[in-house]
Amino acid sequence: MMIKINSLSVPLKCDENALKTAVSRAVNQKKEDIGEITILKKSLDARKKEDIHYVLTVAAEVKNEAAILKKCKNADKYQPFSPLVIPKNSLKNRPVVIGFGPAGIFAALILAKAGAKPIVLERGEDADSRKKKTDLFWQSGELDEECNVQFGEGGAGAFSDGKLNTGTHSPLINQVLKELADCGAPPEILYLAKPHIGTDRLLTTVKNMREKIKSLGGEVIFGAKLCDFKIRDGELYSCTYLKNGEKNEIRTDDLVLAAGHSARDVFQLLLDKNIKVEQKAFSVGMRIEHLQSDLNLSMYGKNAPFGLLPPADYKLAVHLENGRGVYTFCMCPGGRVVASASEKETVVTNGMSYYSRDGENANSAVLVGITPEDFGGSSPLAGAELQRNIERAAFTKAGGKYLAPCTTAGKLLGVTDHFEIGKVKPTYLPGVAYTDPREYLPEYAVEGIKQALPMFAKKISCFGDNEAVLTGPETRSSSPVRITRGESLESVSVKGLYPCGEGAGYAGGIVSSAVDGIRCAMAILEKALF
């Protein structure tokens, strides 16, 4: 029989024999009485720099299970993973999924497993073609507005770090991780406390998921942009997409709208169709870069066994006296800052890491929370327009050609009176140009970051480095709208339309978006049963 053992401390270098020794001590049993051991969760404890170690939760095969559960405070009954039970298809018409990011992929996968033969419409291109276009943009500034870091197979998260940690709690999270691992994601995502796939391996994973959906009867159409949909008697009747200049109509009763947080044309289409869309708070700021080696030193200490430790990461947040929150977001160890625009003559930044996380710099967004009161208008799309205004100003003030506005922490804080790149080299391509952040960001955002950096430095010393580089703007951390839906997960304005994922305002990141995609697919299937 197997039991679950919590809070098991093990050294950084822990082989199978050492692990069995730790388990035998935890349950007070002989090593030969311990059978198979499966790691369920693994996290690094670096709170005490003189004692950095891993903390595990494991499932272990033991003798005398009842006696151990009675005596051992850290032991519980082990409940193995139970896959989601998916209803069989009973839909009249094939469902349609708009967008092939995490929400759309998982909605399509569940619908395909049910035998519903979903049709996926993705405005961008497949992962391989998309990578070629993003590489071209980063090198030459040649932007494809329909296929870029925001649009294409895998969604915006495909060009990030493939981070899978989430602050949400759902029994479907394990389902998401299992599906990803089955399609080529690193197996350790099933137990790491801070799992990540990396952009390089994530692109392969989403391609495998596409092929799985197709093998189950689903269809994925790239270069297919949603341009219209019809409603009859308050219910969805059909949708129309544009591909190669031609319009194509699909008769459908169910549409999962997982278009992403940058699909501003889709938001406008919804307004034109009198679909309820609300303003939603989001955040703006810049990307900060430090040397990864300096961050490692700050987090682990000078005497740490660096060869046994992963590249350090962090997550910071402070509340300012004026009530605004400032926090780090999408931290990319050993990564780079990437050009992420989806509209001509705009600059948008994001962070990206490969699986190895072996780049010279660490980066993360430093964001200031803003609310609809800051939008300057009552339109549901006022937040999107604020984003656009910041992005256009950044393009212009940095001199065009998709150069990104850049400064240093020392210059921003007034420690130095001139801009000079030091030991931290900006990683953004096509390149950067010194720009005062006040030239493109709202004053409250600049002041918020200025106040937060010294506060962050009290927690992590490398934040006191005046040579840290700040590149902006970061405007696409989350959707500026929420497409209002009810308990059925359908739009409150039309039955059969399922606003889904981060773009609809109901998720924030790969895992929570994937979970929302599963929930919307299950809602469609369960509705059809009644």
Give a quick summary of the entry.
The protein is of the alpha+beta class and 530 residues long. The protein is built from 12 helices and 22 strands.
Please give the structural blueprint.
Layout: E1 2-10, H1 16-27, E2 34-45, E3 53-62, H2 65-71, E4 75-77, E5 96-98, H3 102-113, E6 119-122, H4 127-140, H5 173-182, H6 199-215, E7 219-222, E8 225-232, E9 235-243, E10 246-251, E11 255-257, H7 264-272, E12 277-279, E13 282-291, H8 292-300, E14 317-319, E15 325-339, E16 349-352, E17 361-370, H9 382-397, E18 404-408, H10 409-413, E19 432-434, H11 443-457, E20 469-474, E21 481-483, E22 497-499, H12 510-527
Parallel strand pairs: 5-6, 5-11, 6-7, 11-22, 18-19
Antiparallel strand pairs: 1-3, 1-4, 2-3, 8-9, 9-10, 12-21, 13-17, 13-20, 14-15, 15-16, 15-17, 18-20
Helix pairs in contact: 3-6, 3-12
Key traits:
alpha+beta, eight-stranded mixed sheet, about 525 residues, five-stranded parallel sheet, 12 helices, globular
Task: Describe the model.
- The chain is an alpha+beta fold and 530 residues long.
- 27% of the residues lie in helices and 26% in strands.
- It is built from twelve helices and 22 strands.
- Strands 13, 14, 15, 16, 17, 18, 19 and 20 form an eight-stranded mixed β-sheet that branches. It has a five-stranded parallel β-sheet with strand order 7-6-5-11-22, with helices on one face. The protein has a four-stranded antiparallel β-sheet with strand order 2-3-1-4.
- Strand 14 (317-319) and strand 15 form a beta hairpin.
- The longest helix has 18 residues, at 510-527.
